[in-house]
Write a structure and sequence with these properties.
Length: about 150
């Protein structure tokens, strides 16, 4: 297997995950992909500074600021002073934001259950381990800023 095929499959996966996002974003609140990503980051890793969010997504802070303002306007996140450094601000999920993430994730997981219904536990485990290894490897490359341009 060569990297051309892996790249093609990664792009196909991105298209499919976009389709899943579109199919699961309807309901009480329709979330933009960037808003969902920010909410998931806060749900998974706790309150964050805007600079940390920008770094996590490798985006310009002004881009993250606009995206955060959008989810703040609809009451999914709120800002508060960082207890470790009162000059800094942390972004927190509100109760409504937590509920929104949990609802969207539950819907996506039900969709994955349906998609993977014919997969054995062993196949799901292999897929999970491969994804984890790939993501861990990507994290190392990104941390070293070694992604080829």
């Amino acid at each position: 297997m060569d990297n051309d095929q892996i790249e093609q499959q990664l792009f196909k996966l991105l298209r499919r995950t976009n389709a899943i996002h579109v199919q699961t974003s309807s309901g009480e609140i329709e979330l933009e992909r960037s808003a969902y990503a920010i909410l998931c980051l806060l749900a998974d890793e706790g309150p964050q500074r805007l600079g940390s969010i920008a770094t996590a997504f490798r985006l310009d802070p002004s881009t993250i600021t606009r995206q955060v303002q959008a989810v703040e306007r609809i009451g999914l996140v709120e800002k508060a002073s960082d207890p470790l450094d009162r000059r800094a601000t942390l972004l927190y999920l509100t109760a409504h934001g937590t509920h929104t993430v949990e609802t969207a994730r539950a819907h996506r997981r039900r969709m994955l259950d349906a998609i993977l219904v014919d997969w054995t536990d062993e196949e799901r485990g292999q897929f999970l381990r491969a994804l984890q290894r790939f993501n861990d490897t990507m994290d190392l490359w990104i941390a070293r800023d070694a992604v080829p341009h």
